[in-house]
Model the fold of this input.
Amino acid sequence: MSVTTSEHKITIHSGSSSAEILLYGATVISWKQDGRQRLFVSNKSKLDGSKPVRGGIPIVFPHFGPNPEFGLPQHGFARNSTWSFAGTQTENATETTVAFSLEPEGVAPELKGKWPHTFKLVYTVTLTKDSLTTSLSAENTGASQFTFTSLLHTYFAVENIDQTKVKGLQGKLYDEKINNKFKVVEENELVGIASEVDRVYYNVGNAGAQIIENGNVTAFLTTRGFDDLVVWNPWIEKAAGMSDFQEGGYKFMLCAEVGQIGTPVVLQPGQKWVGEQVLH
Ligand code: BG6
Done:
């Protein structure tokens, strides 16, 4: 069987690949290809719905970062809410797709109503032997317009951050939160990480980025609907200050997060937006 459902988690298979999605946050917490885990999940992460997962692919909605305006937690409520399983959409020899949905009544009780808008989010996860596609649609089901930012906060598992580079960002403008540098042009063809990095690259485009390890491309990240890309690694000190970050884990992860940040999405009543990433 290529789709297995349990109370808290959906597991899907396609050929020699598998993925696991928690209903909590509709967070993809595992993507394996030929037995190799492609996503980093901290071994200290709570997977019980008490805290967003520190790893996998948390969904950021309706805002990136802190949001004092509505009193929501950092990165919004989608990753803190339990989504509904909306069923299997495709299940054949080459592809398995499952869907999840979240509407205002499903938002975590302590956060419900803080964002005063009516919406429907649908998230689909499609697994093939070679790829994982995650697609988020947001529909305005209310009577007034709303604005949001969103990301798919993918934690890639890497063998050694010292040997890892990101390609595809040369010439793009970025903001670096660590030292408050804004609108810097990326000069490097291959961006390495040797200290804490927290950058938003703008208008990266559909070609997205590639993760290079030891000189080889180990993941292609392409996108549709998400213009921007966050590159994040907390490095030693910041990671040590996070209660759910595994010791030394900064060495084995790299967040490359497609997002719509620089130009927030404005949805009129009845309108729908779709943002998608393909990892292969
Ligand atoms: C990144 C942000 O997307 O997420 C960082 O750019 C942030 O600033 C990181 O630290 C992790 O956020 P959180 O809320 O999961 O600790």
